[in-house]
Amino acid sequence: MNRVLSFFGAPVVFLVRTARAGAREGISWRESMVQLHELGGRSVWLVMSGMAFFGAVLVTIANSQARRFVGNVAVLGPAYFELLVRELGPVVSALLTASRAGAGHAAELSTMSVNEQVEALEMSAGDPYSDLVAPRIVAGVLGVPLLSTLGTVAATLAAVAVAGVVFGVDGRAFMDPRYVDGWDLLVAALKAGACGLYIPLAAAVAGLRARGGAEAVGAATTEGVVTASLGCLLIDFAVSLAFHLLRL
To answer: 237 exposed, middle or buried (CB, 10 Å; 0-12, 13-18, 19+)?
Structure first.
């Protein structure tokens, strides 16, 4: 029960403390851009290559289903494309980002904690929430939606290429946007933005709570990645369920 309360409550507490510290101390936009490069720039190839393979798998499944039931991928392609844009693109991109950037944030912050650099920052009148956590949150909120967009584009292009080269069908049928509307784009943006907010918060909770030595750094890194990944899946489910209940 304590772990459940910590999973849901700790990121909220950290977010409130970070918002208060940011309003009081200000946020370093230079550091935010550095963190944006660390999160976005260093994750872009992982996200785009991973999503390209994912798009190839997706069109393979779509083609298999089409041959079994309707005979032509052009019939099922638009539905799979909507699924990619609305559901799979933002979430899979966020999971790939969490596996790299979440681990990096948790490892860096936990190393600072066990080396007592966080205490030294506080003794020099610094605030770890405004100086360390806030720039990472800004980078996550800006970076994950950008990575999600690039990942979805990479998956679409890979799906079109595989459909044409491997299966000999018109790949443009897969990227037919007839079912994609503004609500789909809103759902995708909400999921990507919420995941971008949650990933650095989960990493900060794990990292700043680390105490001990190298073993604590490893445990915090693992906890940061696992918590961030599970949080992204919960966000995906919550947003999808909310829009389903609203019939949007």
So the answer is: exposed
Neighbours of 124 (CB within 10 A): 7
CB atoms within 10 A of CB 246: 8
- Report pLDDT digits (tens) over 215-229: 889 899 999 999 999
Residues 71-108 pLDDT 10s? 676 777 788 889 999 999 999 999 999 998 888 999 99
**pTM for this entry:** 0.90
Tokens of 138: 């800004």
* Helices 89-97 and 182-208, packing angle to 10 deg: 20
Residue 202 structure tokens = 């989960």
d(CA 101, CA 43): 7
**What are the strands, taking DSSP E only, across the chain?**
none
Q: How far apart (Å, rounded) are the C-alpha atoms in residues 129 and 176?
A: 45
Long-range contacts of 124-130 (CB under 8 A, 24+ apart): 127/21, 127/24, 127/25, 128/208, 129/14, 129/17, 129/18, 129/20, 129/21, 129/22, 130/18, 130/21, 130/22, 130/24, 130/25, 130/26, 130/27
Neighbouring C-beta atoms of residue 132, cutoff 10 Å: 25
Query: Nearest CA to 81 among 25, 14, 158?
Result: 158
Task: Please name the amino acid found at residue 235.
Answer: I
- Torsion angles phi and psi, residue 168, rounded to 5: 65, 30
